[in-house]
């Protein structure tokens, strides 16, 4: 591993371990008189803001709703009642998953707000100060973007919360939330460097641009005439024209430890094997499989719908899924299935597994929040919509992704067929990366997809209200100015 990557990961691990020092919510263990005085304090606060990302991505907070609430994954059906409830769409405001997303996201927003409020007053290098503030704004935008897609209208908290009286904030409109997101990303883009020379894994100019392209894509929704399609295409093209990102030749190379922070990565959440890791190996191995530390947990399995969507010549299928393994005790090959209800023989998500992990739930593979393949697919989708049909550049973008997968080039599609091709390509290319539910919602295909994915007696009574998650009960109790989403 490269020294600069080790440096950032070790800092993240140390600061995550002493997170109380960086959690500046009003709990009385830190005051402005003892911190935020020096350049070292500023850097510690910024690294702490990255460390909070672990809470959202180390296990399943963002992953679970996006995969099992869509049509990609099925939870272990004899445990985790809240996980089963959101899969079946019988969840309510007491479900732990919306609560975890809300709480971790607002904790992260608090970290960003502290940096934005406090760092300007520190005597330090002015350019570095501006970069730190820009990083905080990028991260704040990222968290609000996740939240607005899950919950809709949100309390907009734009400065550090210092006392309990400031906790009660009413929900702002979706338009106002997006206005903040776009403003933060625009400011971040103008200030962030193209690369961080000594520490990969931090926000860059390209990361701000790529996320802004995705924001525009999301705001376009399913509206053919939306001006956001052209904005998404333009911003994605700016990322492409930076000429600093590229696809790895082999799809498997995207997820290896050696390529962490590599040429395809635009922004990722980094982990450290056996020290500060993630659940992606033990958590998603077949239940009880003795091939990982603590044996597999089988938190959820792959749907037949997703598995069968890959053609036989798609190279991504073998990388994405574990379909068999050799039992270390017997030497026999265990074949896995998408049909057998036994969780010990379930096909598992595997592309983010860390084969070197030795300590429990501490895999070191990065969570790829955005990578270059997604930018190409954003560009293709947005061009198709903005031009009322696919252009040569749209074909070139999607076919670059397909070519790496070993698939033939697309051609001669009308607008509707090209749209469906891009949505399918996103599903196959980005599965298990936390995009599917968001994609189905913005394209108004969620109800159809969930209704059609009826494995193992799902029979989800999904309705329009389920295009949002409920405001968590705990938050409704703490903030009397909140109003619950309709239908919950």
From TrEMBL:
Record keywords: Cell outer membrane, Membrane, Signal
Pfam families to which the protein is assigned, alphabetical: SusD-like_3 (PF14322), SusD_RagB (PF07980)
Cellular compartments annotated: Cell outer membrane
Domain (SusD-like N-terminal) ranges: 91-217
Source taxon at top rank: Bacteria
Family stated for the protein in its record: Belongs to the SusD family.
Designated name of the protein: RagB/SusD family nutrient uptake outer membrane protein
């Amino acid at each position: 591993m490269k020294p600069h990557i080790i440096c950032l990961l070790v800092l993240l691990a140390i600061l995550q371990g002493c997170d109380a020092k960086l959690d500046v919510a009003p709990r009385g263990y830190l005051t402005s008189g003892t911190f935020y005085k020096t350049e070292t304090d500023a850097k510690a606060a910024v690294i702490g803001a990255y460390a909070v990302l672990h809470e959202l991505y180390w296990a399943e907070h963002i992953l679970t709703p996006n995969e099992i609430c869509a049509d990609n994954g099925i939870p272990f059906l004899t445990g985790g009642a809240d996980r089963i409830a959101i899969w079946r769409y019988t969840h309510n405001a007491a479900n732990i998953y919306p609560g975890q997303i809300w709480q971790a996201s607002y904790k992260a927003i608090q970290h960003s707000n502290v940096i934005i409020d406090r760092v300007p007053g520190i005597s330090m290098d002015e350019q570095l100060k501006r970069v730190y503030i820009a990083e905080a704004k990028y991260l704040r935008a990222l968290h609000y973007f996740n939240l607005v897609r899950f919950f809709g209208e949100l309390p907009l908290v734009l400065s550090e919360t210092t006392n309990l009286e400031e906790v009660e904030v009413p929900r702002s409109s979706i338009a106002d939330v997006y206005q903040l997101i776009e403003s933060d990303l625009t400011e971040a883009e103008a200030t962030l460097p193209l690369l961080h020379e000594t520490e990969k894994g931090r926000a860059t100019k390209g990361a701000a641009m790529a996320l802004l392209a995705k924001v525009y894509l999301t705001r376009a929704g399913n509206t053919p005439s939306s001006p956001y399609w052209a904005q998404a295409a333009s911003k994605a093209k700016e990322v492409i024209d930076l000429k600093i990102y590229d696809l790895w030749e082999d799809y498997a190379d995207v997820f290896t430890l050696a390529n962490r922070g590599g040429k395809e990565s635009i922004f990722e959440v980094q982990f450290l094997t056996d020290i500060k890791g993630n659940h992606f190996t033990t958590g998603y191995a077949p239940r009880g499989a003795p091939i990982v530390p603590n044996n597999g947990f089988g938190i959820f399995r792959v749907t037949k719908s997703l598995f069968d969507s890959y053609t036989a010549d798609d190279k991504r299928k073998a990388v994405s899924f574990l379909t068999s393994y050799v039992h270390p005790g017997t030497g026999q090959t265990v074949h896995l299935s998408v049909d057998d209800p036994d969780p010990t023989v379930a096909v598992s998500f595997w592309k983010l597994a860390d084969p070197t992990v030795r300590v429990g739930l501490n895999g070191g593979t990065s969570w790829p929040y955005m990578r270059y393949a997604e930018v190409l697919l954003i560009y293709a989708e947005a061009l198709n919509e903005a031009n009322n049909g696919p252009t040569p550049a749209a074909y070139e973008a999607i076919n670059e992704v397909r070519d790496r997968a070993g698939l033939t080039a697309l051609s001669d599609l009308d607008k509707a067929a090209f749209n469906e091709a891009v949505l399918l390509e996103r599903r196959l290319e980005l599965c298990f990366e936390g995009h599917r539910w968001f994609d189905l919602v913005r394209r108004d295909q969620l109800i159809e997809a969930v209704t059609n994915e009826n494995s193992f007696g799902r029979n989800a009574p999904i309705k329009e209200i389920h295009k949002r998650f409920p405001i968590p009960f705990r938050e409704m109790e703490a903030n009397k100015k909140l109003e619950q989403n309709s239908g919950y």
